[in-house]
Model the fold of this input.
Amino acid sequence: MIAYSEKDSLLEFNVRLIPRASKSEVVGEFDGNLKVKIAAPPVDGAANEEVVKLIAKAFGRSRADVEILAGRTSRTKRLRVTGGSVKRLQELAGS
Done:
């Protein structure tokens, strides 16, 4: 199960990033994090931009609604999705 916090329509959770994948996709749950494969390399913020874009699309939100709170240079990132639902997070995790 993915660890998350929710308050005032702000959903926060961790993402475990796999850069340089063949395609960008949400894979499921891994060690309490949402596992995400990203086609972009971790160079010049390209992977960060791609994960924001992918998570925004997965939640049906705009890119402005997704923010990286921590881990900009790490494979594990803390994200905040404004207007994100726990139900959708659980669906993406495969729960």
Summary: The mean pLDDT is 93. The first helix runs from residue 46 to 59.
